[in-house]
Design a protein that fits this description.
The chain is α+β, with helices and mostly antiparallel strands. It has 2 helices and 11 strands; from the N terminus they run ααβββββββββββ. The protein has a 6-stranded antiparallel sheet with strand order 2-1-11-10-7-8, with no helix packed on it. The protein has a 5-stranded mixed sheet with strand order 4-3-5-6-9, with no helix packed on it. The mean pLDDT is 83.
């Protein structure tokens, strides 16, 4: 082989090695920092022009709901926060969940958190999970009000509602 061919092969191998190292660093970063939860665009954030075209007549404004945040206080996603809006939040191991848990004791669709009737507060409902859900110290069997500061335990993961 010529000297030029050998040099090109060495540089190609070096580039391949660096690509592998960067891929490993990316995977480690994701494992250490966890899943990034981003807020979806709300109606207020849409450009005014797009709103005017989509909705020629504005509906009556919904009652104002206090801002609430769901915080993971224990478990593999500790520190993860999720802003609660008007839409229900589905929590579990399934890819279609709003908050995907990496917990072997969580069901695919474990629990649902919905806005309470009348716009004040939140309601948590166990979705017939295998290992159950605990709100405070009691096992959740029927939909219950989810008060701020009350721990919600799903397997090894603990969530808390904060205002």
């Amino acid at each position: 082989m010529s000297e030029l061919t050998l040099t090109v092969l060495r540089l190609g191998l070096l580039a391949l090695l660096w690509a592998f190292v960067l891929a490993v660093v990316g995977v480690l970063r994701t494992d250490l920092l966890g899943t990034r939860v981003t807020a979806r665009r709300t109606e207020r954030e849409r450009p005014r022009r797009a709103r005017a075209e989509a909705e020629p007549e504005a509906p009556a404004p919904a009652p104002r709901r206090e801002r609430a945040t769901l915080v993971v206080t224990e478990g593999s996603l500790r520190g993860t926060t999720l802003a609660l809006g008007q839409a229900p939040v589905l929590i579990g191991r399934g890819a279609d969940c709003t908050l995907v848990l990496d917990d072997e004791y969580a069901s695919t669709r474990h629990v649902r958190i919905t806005p309470a009737q009348g716009g004040a507060g939140w309601v948590v409902e166990d979705l017939q999970s295998t290992n159950g859900t605990h709100l405070g110290r009691e096992r959740l069997t029927t939909p219950q009000p989810f008060e701020p500061g009350t721990p919600l335990r799903i397997g090894r993961t603990v969530l808390e509602l904060r205002r």
